[in-house]
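This part of the workshop introduces the protein records we will be handling. A record pairs a protein's sequence with a compact description of its fold. As an example, a complete record with its sequence and its structure tokens follows.

_____
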Amino acid sequence: MNLFRLSISLFLSLLYTLVYTQQDPFFMPFTGDVYKLPARRVMDSKFGYSEEIYDYPKLGKINWEEIRIKKTTTDFPFPDVDRKDRFGMILDSEMVIKQDGCYAFILSSDDGSVFWIDDKEIINNDHTHKMTSKKDTLFLEAGKYPIKLWYYQGFVNQYGFIFDGFYLGPECLGDKTLSNLPSSNTNGSKKKSKKILLSGQYLFDYDSYTLKEEVTIALDSLIAEIKDVDIKSVTVHGHTCDRGNTDHNIELSQNRADRLVEYFVEQLQRSEITFKAMGHGSSLPIVNNDTEPNREKNRRVEIVIE
């Protein structure tokens, strides 16, 4: 049994490595112009992106492989910009999505920023503010997408600009898609999948990732249904409500997802199936965390079978 568990552990470790290196979005270099912003406009706290940006004087050009400028004081020069304040930039790139699925995008900035896919606004983090992060998720089909980013630095003595995207799983919990955007999708129709939503309280005791004994009967019934069915993957997503420490919630949701994957692996005993566990903490609620019944809905586990 110990050898079996070790083999499964090594298999899952290798699987995780392959999944994470192959499925995240790939971005071509971010290129564009830097513009000098007029003081009278930047003094307005509601200042943000508009088409008039293109009419301002150009200060230079940007060509970055990635956008990872952490929060920094203006005592240190902003990369590739010979100014401390009152400048903005419009950067273009091409994003390559390798497979149909749900993708998360994070945009952090001090001051404002906006992210578009094919001129469709995805994240608006604009106007004057301290270092702030915003995130959104959407379903994308495999293909290539033109993307655009706006960023500006006002008068404050700090700056920062970070953008990234990563793969979440085969389906999104919400209905947001960009299926009407042009892409080089050659995969045909979307993959069919079965999604099972289970309450966290039903599966686990409070703040625990040990499966309750009474729920294994229901899980075994589910496994019996799919044991001889031709499936390619089982993905488990763990979620919590917003109560508690963020890092702890992520760890708890990951441990719960890991435990369910371990149970599926043990019971199915089918090495050809790809198993994956993902803990999201409280970052992807399905309802607002404003009442205890809603928090119970957000404390959940989602099993996606393809």
